[in-house]
Design brief:
The chain has about 270 residues and is α+β, with helices and mostly antiparallel strands. The chain is built from nine helices and eleven strands. It folds into two domains: about 5-120; about 125-250, Transferase(Phosphotransferase), domain 1.
Length: about 270
């Protein structure tokens, strides 16, 4: 069997754009175009590029190729990141939240196993909240932090837990002195039925990732508690306890990864 026949490409296009021949053809061609075309916006674990198609500006995200065990899991037990992000975008929009419009996704399968995934969305000029909450020399913007707390409350009350809720995955824009938010990197998201109440502990744990600055964390959690009508002191004590546990676990995990990486590099050097 030829190498070409061993490859399978699954292309999913947003039903609202299936009659847009130019867009459909672009989406189909993404795996061939991606390596050498487009403007790089992000190039780390995942690669994100910007493309111009007529009067539209699009973003294509290629997820990091999974290792063999992950390929097996995605092939038989779990939806791929690209598919989950595409479906989660629909869910967010159906519950009144904003995310860049999902245009399509692609899955590449090789020899019966998932290999590569691409997500295609519209481009947005909105900036990450990290711009005003984390990277400001004069300290974080309290108005934005307060609005962000209210936004997270609304997510939780509507059954949405973004499992990677860090300050680069929440975008904002400001109109008439009001902040508006949107979410990106939404492949990891827990969705509860609208009528199901999410536990207090799960809600507080969801805020562990957005900052390592405890002053900012203290402020946002205090505002969050106010919006929920919870006792501020009790909420803050519990939230800080959960965050310290999370931060300690993350530090240990990074230390272990660092040790394993060093050992692996030494083995490679010794065998060279």
């Amino acid at each position: 069997m030829s190498e070409t026949r061993r490859l399978m490409k699954i292309v999913k296009v947003n039903k609202d754009f299936k009659l847009n021949t130019q867009l459909v053809e672009f989406i189909k061609s993404v795996p061939n175009l991606f390596e050498n075309k487009g403007d790089v916006l992000h190039n780390e674990r995942n690669v994100i590029k910007k493309f111009t198609l007529g009067d539209k500006v699009l973003v294509v995200k290629r997820y990091k190729r999974p290792f063999l065990f992950q390929r097996f899991i995605y092939s038989f037990f779990r939806q791929t990141k690209a598919k989950r992000a595409f479906l989660n975008a629909r869910t967010l929009r159906s519950r009144g939240f904003v995310t860049p419009l999902e245009l399509g996704y692609i899955e590449i399968w090789k020899k019966g196993l998932f290999e590569d995934g691409y997500l295609i969305t519209e481009y947005t000029e909105d900036a990450a909240i990290a711009e005003l909450l984390v990277h400001r020399k004069e300290g974080f913007c309290r108005d934005l932090a307060k609005s962000f707390a209210e936004f997270v409350v609304n997510l939780h009350l509507n059954g949405i837990i973004h499992l990677d809720l860090n300050s680069t995955n929440v975008l904002y824009n400001k109109e008439n002195n009001e902040f508006y938010f949107s979410l990106i990197d939404i492949n990891r998201m827990k969705v509860y039925p609208k009528n199901k109440k999410i536990s207090k502990e799960k809600c507080l744990k969801n805020l562990n990732r957005f900052t390592i600055d405890y002053e900012l964390f203290h402020y946002v959690l205090t505002e969050y508690a106010k919006y929920r009508g919870w006792d501020e002191r009790e909420t803050l004590i519990k939230a800080i306890r959960l965050k310290k546990r999370f931060d300690t676990h993350r530090r240990r995990k990074k230390a272990i990864y660092s040790i394993l990486k060093t050992i692996t590099l030494r083995k490679i050097q010794n065998n060279a």
